[in-house]
Amino acid sequence: MTTQSEFPKLVLFQGNLPAPEVYRPAAERITAGDPVQSAQNLFQSADGRFNSGIWSSEPGTWRVVFSESEFCHLLEGVIVVRGDDGSEATFRAGDAFLTPAGFTGTWEIVEPAKKFYAFYE
To answer: Where do the TM regions start and end (predicted)?
Structure first.
């Protein structure tokens, strides 16, 4: 992972990347499937509030509560995001969206998904 320093360098999202961290959402948040996920956080600001990297997930559904604002560019798969306010959006490879801090609802991974992310907390 790269952190901001006196002489910042470009952060590449391809090539020789670090091994991903593999995990699952907390069991009490999973509502369907087994959404095994992985993340490669490629950048973190010096204060730890801004992060960016690559994330992927197997199919499944889980509850989300966003404390951060996150920009996503979906590279692969299909995701359905449902808000507790009744909103619903389906995203496919090539789509981009932002989830604002305070958003609550569910993420459903319909087809294995991969995204670039950048979030600020």
So the answer is: none
Q: What is the mean pLDDT of each run of 10 residues along the chain (121 residues)?
A: 67 93 98 98 96 99 98 99 99 99 99 99 96
The range of the structural domain enclosing residue 107 comes to: 23-120
Q: Per the domain annotation, does 16 fall within a domain? A: no
d(CA 99, CA 16): 29
* Per-residue tokens: 23: 């995990």
pLDDT at 65: 98
CA distance 105 to 121: 18
In a domain? residue 3: no
Q: Look up the pTM and report it.
A: 0.90
What DSSP letter does each residue of 6-59 carry, written as one string? SS-----SSSSPPPPEEE---GGGEEEE---EEEEEEEE-TTS-EEEEEEEE-S
